[in-house]
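DM from R.C. (forwarded with permission)

"hey, sorry to bug you on a friday — could you get me a structure for this? deadline for the figure draft is monday and I only need the backbone to look sensible"
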Amino acid sequence: MDPLAALLDGPRAHGAFLLRSVLTPPWSLRIEDQAPLTVVSVVRGEAWIVLDDGESVLLGEGDVAIARGPDPYLVADHPSTPPQALILPGQECRTPDGGHLTEYADLGVRTWGTGGPVVLLTGTYGMEGEISKKLLAALPTLIVLRAADWPTPLVGLLATEIGRDVPGQEAVLDRLLDLLLIAALRTWFDRPDTSAPAWYRAHDDPIVGQALRLLQHQPAEPWTVAKLAANTGVSRAALARRFATTVGETPMAYLTGWRLALAADLLRQQPDATIGSVAHQVGYGSAFALSTAFKREFGVSPQRYRTA
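My reply, with the result:
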């Protein structure tokens, strides 16, 4: 899979926190949940997102914002409105002085607030995959996609489905959130004025893109630069030079990082799998070989990483 797909495949949303907020100005929420990634969309009305570094962005109806954690930020009717509620890790809600929150109430299925003309949708990922970190590291603190520039039916569909309480609805909402996030990130990366990471742009190169797909889809294959070159129809020297120029690292360096990222995910996703079986899945000949490379990359053994 490519790194963008890996963002949500290792792990994908599973029981993600999804909430519809219905609010009347003045309102202000201080987000301190330390979540790696949060998607906010405006169904009705307007909302400001205010970062601690001073950046403020006004969202209108249909706009989508992606906030990269773990730094806190404010979502409010106006940047000057003082926080009325703190959203803490585990989605615990408190008043700014730490007291019990009474002003905001449960308004129905996955819905809370004070009631009113403003409706927001929030989807929060609590993922910890190393593949995800590779992509998250390439994102700015805040991404905004305007409805006028990016018409999508997904916001409306998610708004309709979020209030339904039927069997299997949690899985439906997880997948809708995944679709919204993937579509938004793909649109943002494809913008000509976006500084997308080299490994993302490299997929458009007819030779390097093919090499990347081979490495990503078949990490357990005993790849060499020569074998990779043979599969892409160019010489070994040509592939090595073009890959390093386009991606920013050699093919084998990229493969090592990809294998270790996959191993990190598998260690958490497959708690009963042995280190040896994980090693073979990602292309290492033994548990010892994986452990040596893993400790060099992450500073801890695979077993300690799994139990941390």
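R.C.: lifesaver. The longest helix spans residues 169-189.
me: no worries. The chain has twelve helices and 13 strands.
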